[in-house]
Amino acid sequence: MSGRLGDTADWMVHSPVFFVLLTLAAYRVGREVRDRTGGHALAQPVLIAVALVGTTIAVLGVDYRVYRSGTEMVAFWLGPATVALAVPLHRQSHRLRGFLLPLLVAIPLGAVVSVASAVTVVQALGGGAELARTLAPASTTTPVAIALSETAGGLPPLTAVLAVTAGILGAVAGPAVLTMLRIRERRARGLALGAVSHGIGTSRALTEDASEGAFAALSMGLTALTTSFVLPVVVALLVR
Amino acid sequence: MITGLTWLLACQLVGEVLVRLTDAPVPGPVVGMVVLFVLLRARGSGDDATVVRAADGLLRHLQLFFVPAGVGVVVYLARIRDDAVPIVAALLVSWCAGLAVVGWTTTLLERVGSRR
User: Fold this and answer.
1) Is residue A193 part of a domain?
2) A1, A47, A129, A239: which has the highest count of C-beta atoms within 10 A?
3) Are residues A106 and A33 in the same domain?
4) What pLDDT is stored for residue B116 in this prediction?
5) Which of B51, B106, B115 is the best residue to mutate to test the A interface, defined by the most A CB atoms within 10 Å of its own CB?
6) What DSSP line would sit under chain B, residue for residue?
7) Residue A81 resides in a domain
């Protein structure tokens, strides 16, 4: 009897059914906490879900790679969801007029500053070259960050974690810091948040204001594009 | 819902194929986003379009799709603890610097542009 119980438990902690259920349930708890706290900035569903799932698989002794491959079908929808960001942009496209120049100057400038400052700070504090290459793409959207980290010679899975962290930072503190920096125009706020906190920052921007969300989506896409060109150059110049 | 999701996946596939054909250093879904944007503009789609409703449905839960990658933190807890100072400092500094530079530059150029 105990053999069958053990086998069943073993099957469960390797089953996609369990991992997807765990992920959805943890996310659901995250949404519930956000709603119950009246949308408190710290109560980001992704943050709560990562903490709950991380603790659970650590307690059960499940290898992360097993969890990751079991939840492939959840991560899969990040692609179509990124495509879906065209919709808020479409709704706000009338607000693009007269905004092209700021956009085309600010985003590349932001990409250079993000990559260069990450690399410089890591090395100044004795983090080493591999860590510098790992942190360099952290402000771009997760799939791009992983690819860029790979070509730059970083640790792609750690880059993914740091990219998600930068996203969560934007969702938690972005709007407050923007107000502190006296950036009040909705389009400017959206562009800034999308540039440093990609999709997760965009999801917060969408709940703040429709045009802030649309410009965050646009910024996320353009930042991914420009960082892809800028990063190899900056890394070659600055990483020792 | 299914019709809408079909459109989203079709746009993503077009994006992925274009990226591979041209060797562009961009992710397929981002190109797919541009493809869908062009389609929506061309057709003047309203909020009742199936693809728009499917997109709104996915975007409401955008944060969910980042959870599997985020849980990877459990693997790197030791590494992050060992290099906590450079990692945390670099993340914070580059995040703040990027936010300020993009926000301020945009605000400045927008004011210059609207004064003309």
Assistant:
1) yes
2) A47
3) no
4) 61
5) B106
6) -HHHHHHHHHHHHHHHHHHHHHT-SS-HHHHHHHHHHHHHHHHT--TTSHHHHHHHHHHHTGGGGGHHHHTTHHHHHHHHHHTHHHHHHHHHHHHHHHHHHHHHHHHHHHHHHHH-
7) no
pLDDT digits (tens, 9 = 90+) for A166-213: 999 999 999 999 999 999 999 999 999 999 999 999 999 999 999 999
- Taking CA–CA distances from A188, the nearest residue in chain B reads B103
Contact criterion met (CB < 8 Å) for B87 and A131:
yes
Residues of B within 8 A of A44 (CB-CB) are: 63
Do residue A87 and residue B32 have CB atoms under 8 angstroms apart? Answer: no
- Among the partner residues B86, B100, B113, nearest to A125 by beta-carbon distance: B86
Q: pTM score, two decimals?
A: 0.88
- Alpha-carbon gap: B21 to the closest alpha carbon of chain A (Å): 16
pLDDT in the model for residue B93: 97
A17, A121: one domain? no
Chain B residues near residue A48 by CB distance under 8 angstroms: none
Chain B positions touching A80 (Cβ under 8 A) are 5, 8-9, 12, 29, 58
**B94 and A118: CB-CB below 8 Å?**
yes
Over residues B12-41, the pLDDT tens digits come to 999 999 999 998 777 788 889 899 999 999
Question: Range of A25's domain?
Answer: 1-72
CB pair distance less than 8 Å for B91 and A177: no
How far apart CA B86 and CA A19 sit, in angstroms, is 33
